[in-house]
Amino acid sequence: MHEKDEDIIDFSASLTDVWRLLNEQERELLRKNAAIQHYKKNQQIYTEGDEPTHLMCLVKGKVKIYKEGVGGRNQIIRMIKPVQYFAYRAYFAREKYLTDAVAFEASSVCLIPMKVVREIMKHNYNICKFFIRQLSVDLGIADERTVNLTQKHIRGRLAESLVFLIDSYGLEDDATINIYLAREDLANLSNMTTSNAIRTLSTFVSEKIIAVDGRKIKVIDEEKLRKISKLG
Predict the structure, then answer these.
(1) Three-class SS of residue 31?
(2) pLDDT at residue 1, as a whole number
C-alpha cells in the first residue's frame, strides 16, 4: 500500500539529512513523487536480479540485506535501521540488484524514484556529495567486515555481531538487545553454521557474558563482549 503527500510531510523529519540539502522546489518534487510503502514481517522488499528503480529510506522497523551463498546458505550483508538509505548502489553502478532485502519486522519504507534523485543531482552538488559519502562509508564497513568475518575466530565473529546489534538497535531497559534474531539469522550475520552459533552462544552464557531466553539475548558483561569482538 502506497501513501503520499501527508505521509511524506510527516516523515520529512526522518529524511532530515537529505531534506536540509534541498531547496523548496526540490522538496516539492519529492513530495509529489515519493511514497510510503508498508511491509509485513518477512515480506520481500526487493530480490536479486530486480531492476533498481527507487532510493529507499527505512522510516520504521528493521530490514536485512542478504545474499544467497553456496549450498543455499544465506549471508546477511547488512541490517538496516531507521533512518538509513539503501537499495540505490545498483542503480548508480548500472547493475541489477546483487542482494535481497526483507523486512525483518513490520516496516515502513520511503520510496523515492531514482529518476527524481538523478534530476536533483544534476543541479545540487551537495546531494552528490551526500551520496558519495554514503557509498564511501558503506564500502569501508564492507571492507572491514570482509576481513573480520574471514580472519576472526568464531567467538570473535559472534561477539562482533552482538556488538553490531547493540550499536545498531540499542538495549532495552533490562539490557536485552532490541532485536530478536533466530539462531539461523545470527549465524548468517556471523558467517558461521547455525550449530556453531548455538554452541558459541552457550559458551557466552556459561561465561556469564550474556543470558538467553528464546530469541532474546540479555547482555550481562558488555565490556567483555566488546573485548572478545576486538581481539577476535
Answers:
(1) helix
(2) 40
Look at the chain and count its residues.
Answer: 232
Count CB neighbours of 84 within 10 A: 15
Measure the CA–CA gap between 89 and 188, rounded to whole angstroms: 22
pLDDT in tens, 122-142: 999 999 999 999 999 989 988
The residue type found at 110 is C
Where b means 16+ CB within 10 Å and e means fewer, 204-229 reads beeeebbeeeeeebebeeeebbbebb
Which pLDDT belongs to residue 13? 53
Q: How far apart are the C-alpha atoms of 48 and 162, rounded to whole Å?
A: 27
DSSP string, 151-199: HS-HHHHHHHHHHHHHHHH-B-TTSBBSS---HHHHHHHHTS-HHHHHH
pTM value is 0.81
Residue 105 is placed in which grid cell? 519486522
Contact present, 76 and 129 (Cβ < 8 Å) = no
Q: Angle, to 10 degrees, between the axis of helix 125-151 and the axis of helix 154-169?
A: 150
Question: What pLDDT digit, counting tens, does each position of 57-101 carry?
Answer: 999 999 999 998 777 778 888 899 988 999 999 999 999 999 999
